[in-house]
Amino acid sequence: MAIAEFFQHLMNGLTLGGIYALIALGYTMVYGILKFINFAHGDVLMAGAFIGLFVFDWLRGSAPSGVWTIISFFLAMIVSMGLSALLGMFIERVAYKPLRNATRLAPLLSAIGVSFILSNGAAWAFGTRSRKFNYPFDNTPIHIGEVVITPHQILILVVSLIMMIGLKLFVDRTRMGKAMRATSLDQSTAMLMGVNVNKVISLTFAIGSALAAVGGILIALDFKVYASMGTMTGLKAFVAAVLGGIGNISGAMFGGILLGILETFGVAVFGIPTGLKDTIAFGVLIIILLIRPEGLFGKVEKEKV
Amino acid sequence: MKELLVIDDISVCYGNIRALQNVSMHVNEGDIVCLIGANGSGKSTLLKAIVGLEPLVDGVITFDGEEICKAKNAGKGKDHLKHITTDLIAARGIALVPEGRRVFSDMTVEENLDMGAFLVRDDKLIAERKEAMYEFFPILGARRRQKTRSLSGGEQQMMAIARALMSGPRMILLDEPGLGLAPLVIADIFEKIDLINKQDKVTVFLVEQNARMALKASNEGYVLENGRVVLQDSSAALLENERVKAAYLGE
Question: Which of A229, A234, B37, B186 is the most exposed place for a label (fewest CB within 10 A)?
């Protein structure tokens, strides 16, 4: 394979992976604290994309392009993050919190129910047709040597990088971020330190949902916005979270990017038919569960006595 | 002397099993009080009940004159105490060093201490207290950037105590601080507990299987057997008590 071709695929893989990583973070953070897979997470991504689409179109009005369009795009992203965060917190409050002391299967089933409510609700409210997300700016590809990069790809890379660095700084440096990590390591001891676990859980859902909204908007740029858009992307991001070691934040970032690269190279280099592209992620899931169920970054805790 | 913690006739159940039966105790401000008893006598359950991690089926616990835990069926209507959660009990000034230390193993020593100071909103005060802890436990200062899981058992125990002190508690509850540690390390830890009590004026409630160490370190003692308090006296008197000698001191 030529060097240029390699970099081309790498670039495509990184952008796809960046989006997976953003969404995988929500799965992994919630799992870290509640030990439960929020299967409605993918549909929050869809809601975020719809909110972004509507707010963006409303803000930019009829102005075709220009600085205001770019500003409205980012404003729409911020509004979508905020509203999706509220949606995530609301879902947790009504569908998961009452089941916190129930069997482990109960919140899982509740999550699947919420997922159907969201996607069917969106289909009912907005119809089943796909909507195009208007471009915030001209997307004419840029040629760097033989490598072709679209401005959207640059946008995706920059935004997902900023989000991941921001999240990492938040959990490592801030008081609430540390409380989140402590809660995921040992909930009752975190309570002994004075941490209000309910607040931490709400915050976790808020952050995860806001990141999913960004992922939804970024993916909608090159694909479309539709009611069931969260299903496949959500499942793949879940695979990415398992790949990195579910519950581990850096693992989710790495797992997402690795999965994006694997998918791109799988099709381009190893000749996996495009129609079977989606099977790559699930093949990876099966392999990882067989070989290293704790994921690449997951640790099997040994207690010292 | 002022009664800081009063445990009034409490019972705790695990299913049909009564882990604690009508237990009453009090801890005076400034004292070191110890609770001794065999494995499974209900010692850890009692500490968990004080910090609200185990619900009471009977009785009341008050701290500094205010109710912190109360059985659910006690009181009626509007007088019914709103359930106080563990984080709010911690905010009243009670710090528990849990059994098995329960350090945040994936966090550094410094981050663990930061978590101990979660309720302290003053960054300058937090920094001062951390420095004080590194001085008090020099080994922690040397390891401040290490992940806690790389620490030895004794170091982890010291870190768990330092973490509890970071909140500036009025009272510290210690659950078997000597468990699984070498005798020299235990002696060191008990020395520190004495200093915490004498210098920092923190009231100490100590739960131990090692009855001799615990009674020597404390002013008052209680003996728990099968979820009931069977003896209560000054620690000096308990050390001479024939029943204690036979059952707990191996004499």
Answer: B186
